[in-house]
TrEMBL record:
The keyword Lipid biosynthesis does not apply. The keyword Transcription regulation applies. Coiled coil: none annotated. This is Helix-turn-helix transcriptional regulator. The lineage of its organism: Bacteria, Pseudomonadati, Pseudomonadota, Betaproteobacteria, Burkholderiales. CDD domains: cupin_NimR-like_N. It comes from Allopusillimonas soli. InterPro entries: AraC-bd, Homeodomain-like_sf, HTH_AraC, RmlC-like_jellyroll, RmlC_Cupin_sf. Keywords: DNA-binding, Repressor, Transcription, Transcription regulation. SMART domains: HTH_ARAC. Transmembrane segments: none annotated. Residues 161-258 form the HTH araC/xylS-type domain. GO terms for molecular function: DNA-binding transcription factor activity; sequence-specific DNA binding. It comes from the Bacteria.
């Protein structure tokens, strides 16, 4: 079953409860669900592999043991790495005090187990049942989960879209801001101003965040640190690890050991 087919099946599942869920194990190739939206809020938990969710102004990264929260009515697309294991929740409007914007949430062991229980339970559970009580606790705990800055601001501005597309095609591209200015027929100063205006970041910080998102996705799919460092154009593995540690607070090996320790 493809990711698109699975999400359609989940959308068609009826429930009177505040939250329902399902698991999906993808095959040995990556999968994508194109732009769609749901009446309910959607939580996507990556158990294995990685998921990226794109909305109009940002790309959100979901490494193992993290989740992305997508409010109801927000158009988005979802893409998963090969052999990913994912858990989906649909949360009824007003059922939980969750953010009104898309965000990445770190998931505790307790919340993870509650999510898995809801995903494995029948969707027609009663509020006074054991599953109903667990659903209530899950939604209360979920609202307390910390937000992580694992997203890349993007823009529909044509010149920035062009730069973003070119970098996506070649993440190792190390052209300077002045070089990119010549590509899109802008001065370095004007382009710097445009990038900050559209993304809230300097160009250097934006490109570093882009590298982090790519790195998390590739490392989650099983690629080695050496290969990812090479693909992103770093002069050495040490330089790549320094960037990664600066961004998330720990080197790749420790980061993924922590993430995968509870799987």
């Amino acid at each position: 079953m493809s990711l698109e087919q699975f999400i359609k099946r989940l959308d068609e599942t009826h429930s009177h409860g505040p939250v329902i869920g399902m698991r999906v194990d993808l095959t040995d190739h990556s999968s994508e669900a194109p732009v769609h939206q749901h009446y309910q809020g959607q939580l996507v938990l990556a158990l294995k592999g990685a998921v990226t969710c794109e909305v109009s102004d940002a790309v959100w990264m979901v490494p193992p043991q993290c989740s992305v929260w997508i409010p109801g009515g927000l158009p988005h697309s979802v893409r998963a790495t090969a052999n990913a294991r994912i858990c989906y929740l649909f949360v009824q409007p007003g059922a939980a005090a969750l953010p009104d914007h898309c965000c990445t949430l770190s998931i505790s062991s307790l919340v993870r187990e509650l999510i898995l229980h809801i995903a494995d339970a029948p969707s027609d559970y009663l509020a006074e049942s054991a599953t109903g009580r667990k659903a209530f606790v899950l939604l209360e705990e979920l609202a307390q989960m910390p937000i992580e800055r694992l997203h890349l601001p993007i823009s529909n501005e044509p010149r920035l879209r062009r730069i973003s597309k070119m970098l996506s095609g070649n993440p190792a591209d190390r052209r300077t801001l002045a070089d990119w200015g010549r590509v899109v027929a802008m001065s370095e100063r004007s382009l710097a101003r445009l990038v900050r205006q559209e993304t809230g970041l300097t160009f250097g910080r934006w490109r570093q965040q882009f590298h982090l998102i790519v790195a998390l996705r590739q490392l989650s799919s099983g690629q080695s640190v050496q290969r990812v460092a090479d693909e992103l154009g770093y002069e050495s593995v040490t330089a790549f690890i320094t960037m990664f540690k600066k961004s998330v607070g720990m080197p790749p090996a420790k980061y993924f050991a922590k993430r995968l320790g509870s799987t």
